[in-house]
UniProtKB/TrEMBL annotation:
<feature type="signal peptide">
    <location>
        <begin position="1"/>
        <end position="26"/>
    </location>
</feature>
<keyword id="KW-0732">Signal</keyword>
<protein>
    <submittedName>
        <fullName>DUF4352 domain-containing protein</fullName>
    </submittedName>
</protein>
Amino acid sequence: MRAPLLLMGFTLIASMSLSLTGCSSASGDPGKPTPTPSATYAVPAETARPDETVIKAPVVTDGLMRFRVLAFRDGMASLVGSHAEWPAKGQYVRIRVLVESIDRSNQQFDARQQLAIASDGRSFHIDLAAQTTKRQPFELVVGSFVRMEFDLWFDVPKDAEITKMRLFGEPPLGVIGKSKGVEVTIR
């Protein structure tokens, strides 16, 4: 009778030892869980507007804002809003961007700080009339981990070939001075 009980005891201890070994991490540290890959959102792709070029630039970060340039269009002689058609002084350039706060607090996005950069180094701020006519934002409060997508409109000289965007986020708390921005190549 003692032999079967003793055998059951050894079997129980051996199975517990095996189950504990199976729970240990690959590093051999039983107190540290093995990380699992992060899940990703299944965000459906959107069809680009027929007149724009899709940009495959990498995501960039400035301060506590993340930016992705999505699409580009240049060479527009005029634009049409809900109540007006407005001619360009030179040519209109439209750049579609996605901005995202990557912080626990709200971030300020100021469209007037963003720059379109020409191949010869000239830089251009958004055009206030175009931005207003197309009902696109000037300033936004981007909530914690919120993404927003919209257009930035520029009126640039006809001879300007826009090749880059310089994007500016809000500096992190405690940083003194303004950001120098981060550049994204468009073409």
